[in-house]
């Protein structure tokens, strides 16, 4: 099954192989995610896609242990926006709120999907 992204979010999904993009409002300068046609801060329509560092911190998370365990989380990017994502490549018992994380891309049904793994502290 192949997922076809909506028109407004297509640049986010088409560019995820190696870089993480979010939208920026040219009028007020705010970064935001989820993609949309107007700025949620000032209702401006002059928007641009900008590349993120791919680094952030865990805002909150939950580990599900039924079947194959997985962690779902909200990650606050260094650039400001908060994304719902999965935390991968880690020991779920060692996760903590405010842990630094970095983006990795996993192939899900032919789409490079951004997820996050713990980053080295320091």
Automatic annotation (TrEMBL):
Domain ChsH2 C-terminal OB-fold as annotated: residue spans: 49-106
Pfam families: OB_ChsH2_C, zf-ChsH2
SUPFAM superfamilies: Nucleic acid-binding proteins
Residues of the ChsH2 rubredoxin-like zinc ribbon domain: 17-47
Entry superkingdom: Bacteria
The protein's name: OB-fold domain-containing protein
Lineage: Bacteria, Pseudomonadati, Pseudomonadota, Alphaproteobacteria, Rhodobacterales
